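Lab meeting, item 3. Inverse folding demo.
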């Protein structure tokens, strides 16, 4: 059992690295790492900067695994794994993602990739999601290195690509193509979700289903609607019908999750009518569904197809259904598993707080570990500004989370 004296010593060392942590986060934010799916060039430049930092530190091993993607810079999506060996064979993985979402609109504090420090916060796209985790995990290990301390268990830091668009070139690719990297008794922390008090430990996620439905009618002049089939009107009826049906049929509640029910949200719409006087011959919309694991996504898709067929045939129209993303929720991490109990212990020791264990509607790559039988938890101290304009990371959260991560390696 590690002593409080050692934990205090490590905490003081992390405090001394505060300014360096902020500088590192600023440098990383300056490098856009946007998926080709969003029109970006990928994570290559950001990975190179991070590798430069990792190679300046005494890690025992640093490896890069490049997932091929011809759309990305140099044709690859990099995934970095760095090891700092411990006194035992047990391993603690801490996983962060390199990619960020597009900047969006509405920024007022600074430009998305021109980070600034203001009021104890670092502003910029990717600061909280997931730059905070990258920096916290990196400096948790650096503090141990600076003090000459070997952790109780080996720390494996992974910095992966493509989290924001499904992990096809990130952790999913690593697990599929390099299964030798992972062991059943690994402990896994994903610092990509939480609350502002740092008290929420996520052990379960809902299934994710993104559906794009395109209604196909017949374009016509708006003054002669009888000559066309208004895809917009049909799609509107279809959207409302699906929204009502899905919420009514799949209405079970489970208090483990927040929110406790399945959600079915229409999010995007589009049609080619470029003028008010054109009846659109096509209209498409997207549903983002976050579904309790009790329900079958195949059954939901079957219900959606049935309703789409009934409504479009009524108007002599047709439709296409495209599944943009699907992730069937795996079995939750046992709330009494070792990684959960270690994290609870660290939070009690360092913050004197009683954590809450639960599930979420969002998806993280913890799900990929749960799917192969490795218990994983999602935890961080966040103000939850991810994907918003004026995204920021609190400097205090970066520093204090690093202390918890270091403690996890020592307890």
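The presenter then showed the designed sequence:
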């Amino acid at each position: 059992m590690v002593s409080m004296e050692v934990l205090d010593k490590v905490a003081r060392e992390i405090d001394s690295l505060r300014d360096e942590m902020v500088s590192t986060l600023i440098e990383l934010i300056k490098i856009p790492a946007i998926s080709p799916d969003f029109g970006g060039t990928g994570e290559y430049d950001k990975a190179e900067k991070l590798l430069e930092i990792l190679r300046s530190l005494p890690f025992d091993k640093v490896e890069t695994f490049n997932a091929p993607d011809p759309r990305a810079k140099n044709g690859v999506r990099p995934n970095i794994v760095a090891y700092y060996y411990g006194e035992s064979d047990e391993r603690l993985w801490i996983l962060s993602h390199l990619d960020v979402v597009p900047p969006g609109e509405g920024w007022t504090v600074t430009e998305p990739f021109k980070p600034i420090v203001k009021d104890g916060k670092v502003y910029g796209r990717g600061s909280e999601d997931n730059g905070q985790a990258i920096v916290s995990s990196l400096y948790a290990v650096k503090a141990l290195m600076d003090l000459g301390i070997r952790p109780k268990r080996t720390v494996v830091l992974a910095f992966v690509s493509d989290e924001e668009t499904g992990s096809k070139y990130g952790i999913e690719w690593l697990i599929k193509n390099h299964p030798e990297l992972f062991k059943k008794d690994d402990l896994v922390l994903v610092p990509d979700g939480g609350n502002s008090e740092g008290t929420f430990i996520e052990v379960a996620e809902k299934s994710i289903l993104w559906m794009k439905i395109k209604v196909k009618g017949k374009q016509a002049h708006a003054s002669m609607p009888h000559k066309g089939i208004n895809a917009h009107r049909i799609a509107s009826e279809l959207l409302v019908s699906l929204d009502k049906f899905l919420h009514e049929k799949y209405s079970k509640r489970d208090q483990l999750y927040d929110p406790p029910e399945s959600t079915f949200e229409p999010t995007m719409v589009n049609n080619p009518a470029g003028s008010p006087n054109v009846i659109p011959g096509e209209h498409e919309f997207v549903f983002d569904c976050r579904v309790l694991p009790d329900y079958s996504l195949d059954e939901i898709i079957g219900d959606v197809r049935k309703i789409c067929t009934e409504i479009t045939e009524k108007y002599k129209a047709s439709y296409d259904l495209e599944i943009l993303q699907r992730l069937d929720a795996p079995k939750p991490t046992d709330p009494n598993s070792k990684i959960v109990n270690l994290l609870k212990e660290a939070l009690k020791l360092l913050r004197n707080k009683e954590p809450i264990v639960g599930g979420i509607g969002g998806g993280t790559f913890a799900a990929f570990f749960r799917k192969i039988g490795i218990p994983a938890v999602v935890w961080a101290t966040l103000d939850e500004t991810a994907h918003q304009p004026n995204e920021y990371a609190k400097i205090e959260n970066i520093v204090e989370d690093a202390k918890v991560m270091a403690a996890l390696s020592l307890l």
